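Help wanted!
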Amino acid sequence: MSQQEFELYLSLLGRFLRLNAAQRSEIADELRDHLEERLDELKSQGLSQDEAVRQALHEFGDASELATHFTQLAKLRRRRILMRSMYASVGAATAVILLMWGMMRTPEPLLNQDVVAQSEVTEVAQVKSPDADAFPTVNESADVKAGQSDGPATGTSDHQAEIEKKLATKLDKVDFIDIPLRDTLVYISEQIQVDILFDERSLKESGVTLDEPVTLSLQHTQVSAATAIELVFERAAGTGVLTYKIRDGFIYVQPTATSRDDVSIEIYNVRDLLEGVETTIREGETLSEDSVDALLSRLPGALAGSPLAARDVRKAGGPMAGRRAGAMGRPGMGAGRPGAMAGVMASSSSYPVEVSPVESLIRVIIAATDDTWAKNGSGNGTIEEFDGLLVIRQSEDQHREIKKLLDMLRETKRGIATEQREPEALPSY
Amino acid sequence: MEKLGSELMRGSLDLMVLSVLAAGPKYGYLIGQSLHEASRGMVDVQAGTMYPLLHRLEDDKLIRSRWDESTGRRRKWYELTPAGHKRLKQQANQWYQYAQCLTKMLQPVLSASPEPA
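Answered by r_m:
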């Protein structure tokens, strides 16, 4: 019985340890030896086997704390902190104090509970900006970010842009084999020189473990840091479970659910996308997925109509009531062709409807993103239009998706424009 | 005598471990015991502190280890390296000077008031 308990303890410890199998088994052997000796001693003091085991394990302490002490990274971080503290104190030192610091070579052997709860990477952040919050808090209030005048608008500070740029840099090599998620992120963090912190509490509550082993090997391509992060997230926890947000100069890893509580407003200038788009008349709406795909691949020419008519459709209780805003039917080059739409419609309310270009764009955005919108879903997101600018209130990860979508649309539009200039290239319908 | 608080030990545990190994190779549990004895009970170090410390000292090449299975059980023995011996001596000297300096500074405090319980 006692042996089992201890082996269980060791395997729990093994889960937390971020070393390879050989190193782990060595530590296990060493601790096993220690435990046996301790048991012998306690029993010679008169304790029963069970009592001795309980006492000995109690002395060992919490497995996760123990593991934290053991990890290589923890060591590295602690050393760095200590070195920095040394530099800081030299200025104020007398010869005696210098001597004292010279002797304080060793890092803290016992981390207090607070530090254990944070990731090792957090410690570096603390040193770098000592006035910053030691415990980053999730921002519940919406903050307004002013946009730029062209292209998809992005966040305010230089920090944001800087981090995004660093996230776009290609990584040297990616070769993770059964590396804990946390460690892969530390590696990426070092590569792009951006701190990556973890919302430990929310992650724990969501049951996401940062120690999940990740295997990712890219031999022939160099991916951006952002892509690498998404890939390791996927491998560790499945698609869409984890995400990150950029905060004040660092990257904050959270469960997607938590991150979505935190919305901010961004302004997107989509005048370029709406330019040259003609009003078309279409009938009713449909929830067909194919329509969405068709639309996304050939956007210009498909958008049409006036907001008024669109409202009529909603009033009539058309298929708009569904979760995903429907697509506008088969688009074509140039003016819309209502005839072709008949095939894709499941229309109960089939009267001609005009939908403005911007309305259609809004519907495309809503259709192509997750169910995070207030108007036809279960989320907090809102999207409104003002003078060719989209004012979107969404979580950061959704903003990222929207930017990607708009970029794709722009590229497609550009591609089509090029084709149009070369008449021979025009496909025939 | 009171047990040394972790605050005080923090800077000197490395040194203590090195000093305990100066007498000859020991395995982890034995090192813990020796620390306890040599300090007359003032030093009580947890396994969770000691083993990472030992591994770190080994990483720093101040001590080296080897496995021994002669007792039937796998046991890891540690001993000082030449660099470890050197470091021990250096640090011991530093500490001595430090202790003297501090004692001198605190003398008036100790003689002026009655000894704290």
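OP: Thanks! One thing I noticed: Residues 396-421 of chain A form the longest helix (26 residues).
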